[in-house]
Amino acid sequence: MLRLRRPLMAALTVALALVLAACSQEQLPNTTFNPRTEFGRDIDDLWDKLLFWGTVVFVFVEAALIFVVVRYRRREGHPEPKHVHGNTTLEILWTVLPAVILVLIAVPTVRTIFRSQAEAPASAIQVNVVGHQWWWEFEYPQYGFKTANELYLPTGRTVSFHLRSQDVIHSFWIPQLGGKRDVITNRTNYLWFTPDSTMGSDVWNGFCAEYCGESHANMKFRAFTVSQEDFERWAAHQKSGPVITAPAAPPGAGTPVAGAPPAAAQNPAPAQPAPADGAAATVAVSSPTLSQSLFPRLPEYAIPKTPIPQGLDFQEGLTGDVERGRQLYARTPCVGCHVIQGVSASPIGPNLTHVGSRTTIAAGLYPNDAAHLARWIKNAPAMKPGAIMPPMGRGLRDPRTNAAGTLDDAQIADIVAYLLALK
Amino acid sequence: MATATAPIHATAHYHEEPTGVMSWLTTVDHKRIGVLYLYSALFFFLVGGLEALIIRMQLHGPNGTLVSAETYNQLFTMHGTTMIFLGVMPLSAAFFNFLIPLQIGARDVAFPRLNAFSYWVFILGGIFMNVSWLMAAAPDGGWFGYTPLTTRTYSPGLNIDFWAIGLQILGVSSLAAAFNFLTTIINMRAPGMNLMRMPMFTWMSFVVQFLLVLAFPVITIALVFLQFDRLFGTNFYTVSAGADPLLWQHLFWIFGHPEVYILILPAFGLVSEILPTFSRKPLFGYPVMVYSGILIGFLGFGVWAHHMFAVGMGPIPDTVFALTTMLIAIPTGVKIFNWIATMHGGALRFTTPMLFSIGLVALFTIGGISGIMHSSPPADLQQTDTYFIVAHFHYVLFGGSMMGIFGGIYFYFPKMFGRLMHEGLGKVHFWLMFIGMNLTFFPMHYAGLNGMPRRIYRYDADQGWDGFNAMSSWGSYLLAVGMLIFIFNFFRSRAAGRVSGNDPWGGSTLEWSIPSPPPDYNFAKLPTVTSRYPLWDVKSPELTSDIPHTREGDKDNRVKVAGSDTGANVHLSSTDRTHQPPEAPMHTETRLPSARALGIPMPLSTIKPLLVAIGIVIMFTGMLIRSHEISAMAAAAGQGSTMLSTIIIVAGVVMLVGSLYWWLLSPLEEHH
User: Fold this and answer.
1) Which residue from A386, A422, A421, A389 is spatially nearest to A407, judged by alpha carbons?
2) B312 at the A interface (CB within 8 A)?
3) DSSP code string of B536-554
4) Residue B77's closest chain A neighbor by CA?
């Protein structure tokens, strides 16, 4: 069996190389081998050197081991081995050679450390990232707005992240755009990079990489890289107040809350273009469905497939009403935790001013559609273990405070219609 | 040799292995304590393995639903904690206990009762921590327990208390044992056994004891701070009072990195015993192997912040810790090369222990190389907290520590129990481990570099991770089958394995000169040592003729092993070079004279160390109950009392101090 190992290893290497070569963006959507920023490329260059020297050492050591094992197996009739007990020259040699290899690694390492941790250019767009259990808050201080769990980045322009945590330690990571940086309580950490200007509109998965409690696995986000003009349009829209884009009154024409979720998978944000309700909010932006026009169809890896946990029933066939939902929202505990510009102002949970324009809810966990949103509002802790948002469904109790929710399914459907209309 | 001779010394007292539960509860014999460690640690290793298996089943495909987020977080926390503190460390301790006195030619450790105490504290601490499962409050903060997540604000349950208190209990055990072995190795070596003649396993163990003594106080302090925060409202880690979360991380990793070497160096030592034996060659570059071990231990205290490259320490600390981390690769590499050079030119016999040792060299190399890959901080920013790291340290700890320890178990099983383990089953076990381990952990490199974070209880579909995870899970099932075969082999060989005789492998060190299993006094007459390979000097002098020997006043250049009149003596015939297990007489039929007959004073069996250990655990249980009372009072707006916990803590202290006095006032051995 030992004799087989060498060709086996070679075959394995070739096979793996073929597999990797065959893999496209779709197949390995979070790869670190295909960096899209200067920061990511610096790391990747370093990785190439590490991989090269690592492979050299690996091949040398394993080949020597296999040679020795095959060559010096005990055979009948062979004399007792020679009793070598050391060789100073050899030992110095295999102390010095690794040291030389380490120098070859250390020099570019130190260079990259200092380059990647230099001050961000003054022209950079600043994004304040705040980690929460278990979602992300993104503030664009130069533009004066906040959003949650979905990040827009202009291509060709440096983005400087200022990372802070509201509770425990998290770690901010978009594998394709560069290395991660921990998000630590009582400290501000920094990270900056420039998405390649050659990219078109694209979407990247982001993750929390530091264990942060029960729903650590469910603390994801999306980064959308768009052209600078699109970014400016998006930013201007985010800065404006809520824009209601769904039909206001007639029941039956609102947002249907599907009983079964699978239909949601195709396009996460259900298109409900309709005249804005002038009474509810100002119509300020030319394109209220900007994300949809930029990303008419998201790649599969950006569409959450998380199954809805069992036992989360929601009444079939309900149709929410945006106006009723708007009024209801203002009277429910929702306002105690969420910001909708001009409506509610408590910044504990994610900012909902433009929640209808996002592609996901619950920090990248579910697609942002009526079926998921309704169940989320009804019973968030059941949808996402440990979620701090209490269940709003009538009679359901908050595992933390034991307080009971008050909304029936029809009311939740109204709120869903309202929130999804907040483009 | 195959003679079941009639009892010699018909009138002498014969060595009788004491039996019964009480004999185990009161034993102070380092060999029996070693066996207790072995059984306990193997049990916990299986528990930790089962936890890993559930983890792999959960992650077999995307969006697994086998266990909840809460349970998964408990599983990975307890898997790490169990494997490190209850599996690999006590498995090493089993070898420390069993082997160190035998290898240095001593009759027992320096403090036999303290040794029993260490074991009892360990086993009670292990049970304490696992009782948390029964109370549905298993630790869930990760084995690294980062604050502020583990502070009361974010982890109000008993989970973290079980963990923090359990680790403090285990720390008592490790520290007591470490001081014991340091004293033993420094003071109790046989005449002529100078430091540069110590067997390599004893040398590496010696280094490990220093690491334990220096590293465990740091984690103890970190845990006491945490416990004070949780129980008495101090603010070491309270972020709302302005605490810096990096305090914990620095304290933890100043302990945590030397801990890695605590886990790996004993395995290095075992392999350094096994490879020369089955190569029929002395260890290549013995002095360099000693110095590199010391250097690894020393440098191990200067690299801790490489676990923290993502926390934003700034470019200068990143550079410093990157360079020290790269530096530590050099002595580690030297060890690998010296092992290969030991085999070079040898006459290799591929016994099961040898296969595991070669496995260690092959697999640890991979772990070492991936270690260099994240010694580079910018590269580490893509690797840290991903499955790449999981792959790396499993190559180090499974491919390194566990391969070495399994090799050690197969190698020393005959010395411990007088019977050989089954070679065929052993080889099946090895190949299942070797293939299963690579299948489990190699794809994790790819999962990690393709963006899969660690410690996630599920992952979404279409992330490019499904294939890697399925491979890993299949590999873990192979590992489970391998472990079942090992367990079967272990117990079958224990009952009906081939009788091994003193020296089944043709070993070179003192432990092979005495019967298997050794009598309670080990050496009827303490040996005099003249070289690094005393037994080869006797049996195969041509192997050691180049090794420095003491010549002065030592005319015959022999190990003087007493008991040549016992019928179970060393095979001193230098013609015995067949290297086949000699067909020794059944040890049950071989009547060894008792210590009393030989006039050797032996320490008395005593229950007191166990009583002290129970006192300690009662005291700490009181702390746990105090934490529960505090939660209950907080929930009931200050109503309730801490009476119960106070009573239990006081009772524990009374028992601890009382038993300790009783222990100290009773003599170690009979007066003569």
Assistant:
1) A389
2) yes
3) HHHH-GGGSTTS----TT-
4) A211
| B149/A50 touch (CB, cutoff 8 Å), yes or no | no
Half-sphere exposure of B441 (CA within 13 A, CB side): 25
The residue of B334, B463, B544 whose CB has the most chain A CBs within 10 angstroms, and thus the best one to mutate to test that interface, is B463
- Extract the runs of DSSP E, i.e. beta strands, from A85-193: 125-132, 135-140, 145-148, 150-154, 159-165, 170-173, 181-183, 189-193
Cβ A8 vs Cβ B344: under 8 Å: no
pLDDT digits (tens, 9 = 90+) for B511-530: 999 998 999 999 988 898 88
Is B618 in contact with B652 (CB distance < 8 Å)?
yes
Find the closest chain A residue to B541 by CA distance.
A83
Strand partners, A172: A181, A208
Chain A hits for B62, Cβ within 8 Å: 305
Contact A252, A326 (CB under 8 A): no
Within 13 Å of residue B18, how many CA atoms lie on the same side as its CB?
Answer: 16
How far is Cα A190 from Cα A181, in angstroms, rounded to an integer?
Answer: 8
- pLDDT for position B636: 83
Q: Who among A43, A72, A306 is closest to B381 (CB)?
A: A43
CB B110 within 8 A of CB B183: yes
Give the gap in angstroms from C-alpha A102 to the nearest C-alpha of chain B: 7
Burial of B153 (0-12, 13-18, 19+ CB in 10 A): middle
Tell me which residue in A116, A171, A306 faces B310 most closely, judged by beta carbons: A171
* Angle, vertex CA B529, rays to CA B527 and CA B531, nearest 5: 155
**Residues counted in chain A:** 423
Q: How many CA atoms lie within 13 A of A20 on its CB side?
A: 16
Report the DSSP beta bridge partners of residue A181. Answer: A172
ipTM of model = 0.89
Degrees to nearest 5, angle at CA A318 with A316 and A321: 165
**Chain A closest CA to B337's CA: distance in Å?**
7
- Please give the structure tokens belonging to residue B172: 């008592």
Which residue, A362, A366, A397, A367, is CA-closest to A379? A397
CA distance A274 to chain B (A): 33
DSSP 3-state of B176: helix
Q: Which residue among A1, A186, A385 places its CB closest to the CB of B239?
A: A186
Q: Does residue A128 sit at the B interface (CB-CB below 8 Å)?
A: no
Q: List pLDDT tens digits, range A199-258.
A: 888 999 999 999 999 999 999 999 999 999 999 999 999 998 887 875 444 444 445 565
| Cα–Cα distance, B51 to B480 (Å, whole number) | 11
Mean pLDDT, range B306-330, rounded to an integer = 95
Q: Which residues of B are catalytic?
A: 79, 108, 143, 173-174, 257, 259, 261, 272, 306-307, 332, 335, 454
CB A161 within 8 A of CB A172: yes
For chain B, the residue count is: 672
Q: How far is A229 from chain B (nearest CA, A)?
A: 30
- At B603-642, the pLDDT tens digits run 889 999 999 999 999 999 999 999 999 888 888 887 888 8
Residue numbers in B near A133 (CB within 8 A)? 154
Q: Does B311 touch chain A (CB under 8 A)?
A: yes
B138: helix, strand or coil: coil
Task: For chain B, report the end-to-end CA distance as a whole number of angstroms.
Answer: 38
Hey, is the C-beta of A200 within 8 angstroms of any chain B C-beta? no
Alpha carbon of A369: minimum distance to chain B alpha carbons (Å): 18
Q: Which residues of B touch A62 (CB under 8 A)?
A: 362, 365
What sign does the CA torsion over B639, B642, B645, B648 have? negative
* DSSP H/E element including B420: none
Cα–Cα dist B95/B602, whole Å? 21
CB-nearest partner of B63 from A72, A212, A305: A305
